[in-house]
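We include this case.
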Amino acid sequence: MGRLFGAAAVIWAGCVFVHYFSWRTFTDFSFLTQLGQDWRAGRLSQAFSNGARLLPDGLWDIGVLITFWAWGRRLGSWLGLTGNPALALAARTALGIILFNWLWLGLGLNGLWFGPVFLIFSLLLMGPALWDLAAVVRKVKVASLRQSLPLWLWGPLILALAIFLLALSNSLAPEIYFDGLVYHLTVLQYWLHLHGILDFATNFHSNYPFGAELYELNGFWGGHSEGAKLLNVAVLGLTVLAAAGWTAEEAGWGLGILTGAAVCFLPWVSTTVWTTQNEMVLALFLVLFFHAASRWAREKNPEARRPWAWAMGWFGGAALAVKYTAAPAFAALLAALWVDRKSGV
């Protein structure tokens, strides 16, 4: 049955590939001419100037992500969550995102969204996080590379890395997509201007959940949309780690790496990480929610189940705080539990 399913999947993928590509596509190198024209029209000095301006944003976002991981690591240890390194990194960082969302929400509802307040809180929480990172790095042992990856994995892995780097380079440009401008960043800019979360009567987008935007606020409050876009791409990396780690738990690292690469291949992913959106944040929380649900269903001991029940609540609630479309995930989970109550999800 497994071989039949695999053969059907390969045939389906081949049909899709043939539909969208042809021999003419592979032999069409006209894009090289366009690249040459763009290069001649561009200004190298301006490119270096933009890069220098974006360097502080990039370094700040790295510090922010380390802070999420460090404080989420504390919470994850307190809850008693376990997992392989990839899954643990994604889950701990996601927990840190939730904690910081609570902080910015509380400050916003009390009219305290001022630049110095953001900076003071961020630096106070970033200091211990960097200390934690240094302690972890000192204990890390370099793994042996004798057991190399299977040859068939290198192709998907290199392609996934290229897609990720392309998304990362795209995030270095200012936001120009209408959805990011009139929805995700405009409402944040309005609230920053008024120093708090208030009614925005002329923009109906402000009535939506803002869990993802509060996360992107960490890179946006300084005034640059590129900081928010960089954090959106970072969530893609976390989602890849979560999907790969979960699959590795079930079927080994070979299929885990392939699953992580497959996440990057989704066209939906490319269209949402090149701009400021909330779908990747939603995907991260849902993957972690379903993983926690699977571990909860698998455990028979009530004590062993409790941490995963807490994780389901944290990640499921965070998903609902990002977008209303998270609701069908709960219906899917209930249906799965009802269909297969004995063997788990």
